[in-house]
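Subject: sequence -> structure tokens, single chain

Hey, anyone have a minute? Need the predicted structure for the following. Not urgent.
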Amino acid sequence: MKKFQEVKKLVDGLADDADKFYNKGNSAAGTRVRKGMQDLKNLAQAIRLEVQDKKNKEATKKK
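Reply:
Had a minute. Here:
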């Protein structure tokens, strides 16, 4: 659950830069958004692996 909270925090943190890029044309903010989205992708993958691992361990216990 900790990683999920990190996702929420990361997305909230990108809101200002996304606004600056899309509405004000600030290209440096676009770079920060791209970096943040890459971090988000990596964090999402880590969460996916964690969930799958937990699911597999629980399925093994039931056998």
